[in-house]
Amino acid sequence: MIYRIGIENFKSIQKANISLLPINILIGANGAGKSNFISFFKLLNQIYEQNLQTYIAQNGRADNFLYFGRKKSHSLKGLITFTNNIGNIVNRYGFVLTPNTENNFFFQLEKKGFNKGNNKNENWHDNDIATASLESTLKKDKTYISVFVQSHLASFRVYHFHDTSASASVKQFSRLNDNESLRDNGSNLAAFLYRLKEKNPSSYQLIEATIKSIAPFFKAFDLTPSRLNEDSIELKWIEEGSDMYLNAHNLSDGTLRMICLATLLLQPDLPKTIIIDEPELGLHPVAINKLAGLLKKAAEKGSQIIVSTQSVGLIDNFDPEDIIVTDRENQQSVFKRLSTEELKDWLDDYSLGELWNKNIIGGRP
C-alpha cells in the first residue's frame, strides 16, 4: 500500500507530502488541484511503462507539467513510499525530472530504496537506478525492491468513465481477447465481462445483481462473440419483459457508467490501487450510495482507494479520516485530511456533506 507520497513542482502542487490510508476521497473546489493530484499517478504509470517522452509531448510538454513553468520550477520531483501487507514501511521510489532545451524531461535522478528501520521507524538505504536518461530503467531492474515497486506502479491507472457519447469506445465492438484487465476508459468492457462470465461466474453474477439493484429494468447481460466476426464482441443486454435487441447505445449514461464501476470494483482480482476521477457523474443518489459501498468493500479486500469527487452524497458515506480536503492557498494546492476528533462537536448535528456545504471543512470556492 502507498504510505506517503511527496510531490514537488507538479502543475498546481508546489510542494506536498501526503500520507495515504486505505480509503482516500479528495474533495475541493474546481481548480483546487484534485485532478492534478490524481494525474500524478498517471505520470508515475507512464514513467514505469517507459512512455514518458510520448506522454509529455502529447500533453503540452514540460512547461505544462511544471509549477508555473520552467521559469519558476527547475525540476519536478516525486517520492513514493510503500508499506507491506502487515503495515511495515518497506520500500520507496523517487525521481527528479529536469526539462531540457526541447521542453521535454530527462531523468536527473531515479532511485529506489529500502527501509533498514523497524516497523514505523525510517532508516533509508537508497540506490540510484539511472541518471541522465530519457526513460525510466525501473522496469528492467529485477531486484526485489524494484519488482515490489513495479507491481504498484503498474496498477496506477486513472479510471475515467465519463465518455458515454455515441462514439465512446465503451459503446463500440472490442476485441474478444482484450480481456486481461479492464481498461481505464472501459473500452474493453464487453470482452472483460465475457471473460468473467466464462471463468468467474460468481463475480459476473454479482455485477449483474448490482446493476439490477439500481436499474430495475435491467434483466441480464447478453454477451456472445459477434456471429460475423468471432474475434469481436459488444455490450448487449436484456430488458425485463422485452425481447428487443439492446446494446450499450440503449443504456442511460448513468447506468453505463455504473456498469463500468461495478465491473471495476467487483472483479475477482482487484488492482492494488484503484484511482477514479469523479465517479459520481450522472449517477442517481441511490447508485452513489451503492458505489460508496463497493468502494468500501474493495478497500476491505486490500485495494487502496483514491477518488476525487464533487458529490456531497458520496462523502456522506465515509468517515472524516477518509476525506482529504484540497484548497488553493498562496497560488498552490494544499491537502488536509479531516479528523473526527476535530469535528466531533459539528458531527453531532451535521453530516460531512452539510459541513462541506457550509464551508466548515474547506474545499469550497
From TrEMBL:
Which PANTHER family does UniProt cross-reference here? ATP-DEPENDENT ENDONUCLEASE, OLD FAMILY-RELATED, DNA REPLICATION AND REPAIR PROTEIN RECF
List each copy of the ATPase AAA-type core domain by range.
Answer: 23-316
Instruction: State the organism named in the record.
Output: Xanthocytophaga flava
Gene3D superfamilies given for it? P-loop containing nucleotide triphosphate hydrolases
According to the record, the segments passing through the membrane are none
Its protein name is: AAA family ATPase
- Report the domain of life of the source organism: Bacteria
**Pfam families tied to this protein:** AAA_21
Give the matching CDD domains: ABC_ATPase (cd00267)
